[in-house]
Amino acid sequence: MHKRYPMINHKYLDLTSMKELPESHAWLSLDHELPSHNSSTPDQVPVINLKDPNAIKLVGHACKTWGVFQVTNHGVPINLLQQMEAAGRKLFALPMQQKLKAARSPNGVSGYGVARISAFFPKLMWSEGFTIVGSPYEHARKLWPNRYSRFCDVIEEYKEEMNKLAQKLMSLMLGSLGVTMDDVKWASLQGSSAALQLNSYPACPDPDRAMGLAAHTDSTLLTILHQNNTSGLQAHKEGTGWVTVPPIPGALVINVGDLLHILSNGLYPSVLHRAMVNRTQHRLSVAYLYGPPSNVEISPLSKLTDQVHPPLYRAVTWSEYLGTKAKHFNKALSSVRLCGPLNGFADTNDHNGVQVG
Ligand SMILES: O=C(O)CCC(=O)C(=O)O
């Protein structure tokens, strides 16, 4: 089991009012984790136009080599992205006492609070979050007793558009593995599960010693992230190190999650990523966490395995995997692994050697 830390008292500090970084949020020097710089040939996260006739190939290559890419021409209306961002801003701008009325309960998943991965780190992160699973209504009503419907409408519309895009991306990702949506019965079912995670990273008085969101992989099939125009997201690439994923107006960031990693038998690595903060800008991001119906067993696709390429992972349901992640955090994938890497078929997602916090 991964080491857990007791919750620190300063959990609900109003970060926007802080003139100095409190000890509770001061991480050790992050210098050893800075992105590697090679100015002549910067390694950049791929940007894929989904209307490109070669989109399947481009998506496959990006999944294999990076586990993260940005997409343009994705079909989600730009004004919906703007409305979602405005709704997030409005929520996080509420006074702390108001936000706490919608606080996530100790064992719950929905609501306002610090990052759930905080329990695995001795210091707190410079961020606050709001998680929505299912209807936003109950929590929105506590935040705005008389004016919650606009927020709920935007969330519902956003989830609908994200679901459409997630299906399109799944079809491209599976297609690039030589598999169709029909081969994977649950993939085209309506019962897919998802959560929406709103993240706020206020401007920070000492950004070099603070951490917005510590390095982690997502427990999803895939994640669709909208970030505002402030940089902060970094992805880790084997052999390169930490690379900033720059905001591109209108583009969305796609991460391969742990379940796609399992499904692809390690061919598409689940990407380790984190969020940094800065001194002057408030950063906001909205992650759509997309997974299969929660009780469907996910295992390496049979088309991808044979005697030379045995399944590397055992079958898990999403709900079982979430429990494993809550216990083992960044070692969860290794904990459902069946056998060690074979020659030429290495699992690129062994993050045990990467400093995550
Ligand atoms: O804010 C970001 O860019 C990253 C968010 C993220 O990784 C998450 O919500 O899991």
Q: Kindly give the count of domains.
A: 1
Radius of gyration: 20 Å
Number of strands: 12
User: Stretches where pLDDT falls below 50 for ≥5 residues?
Assistant: 342-348, 352-357
Number of helices: 8
- CATH architecture, by name, is Sandwich
Distance between the termini: 17 Å
| Mean of all residue-level pLDDT scores | 90
CATH superfamily: B-lactam Antibiotic, Isopenicillin N Synthase, Chain
Cofactor: L-ascorbate
InterPro entries: DIOX_N, IPNS-like_FE2OG_OXY, IPNS-like_sf, Iron_ascorbate_oxido_reductase, Oxoglu/Fe-dep_dioxygenase_dom
Keywords: Coiled coil, Dioxygenase, Iron, Metal-binding, Oxidoreductase
GO molecular function: gibberellin 3-beta-dioxygenase activity; metal ion binding
Describe this structure in words.
The protein is α+β, with helices and mostly antiparallel strands and 357 residues long. Helix content is 24%, strand content 17%. It has eight helices and twelve strands. The chain has helices spanning 55-65, 78-92, 96-99, 137-143, 149-176, 258-263, 318-328, 332-335; strands at 47-49, 68-72, 111-113, 128-132, 193-201, 213-216, 222-227, 233-237, 241-244, 252-256, 273-275, 283-291. It has an eight-stranded mixed beta sheet. It has a four-stranded antiparallel beta sheet with strand order 6-11-8-9, with no helix packed on it. Mean pLDDT is 90; it is low at 342-348 and 352-357. It binds 2-oxoglutaric acid. 2-oxoglutaric acid binds at residues 197, 199, 213, 218, 225, 227, 232-233, 273, 275, 285, 287. Keywords: Coiled coil, Dioxygenase, Iron, Metal-binding, Oxidoreductase. Its cofactor is L-ascorbate. Residues 148-175 form a coiled coil. It is an enzyme of class 1 (oxidoreductase).
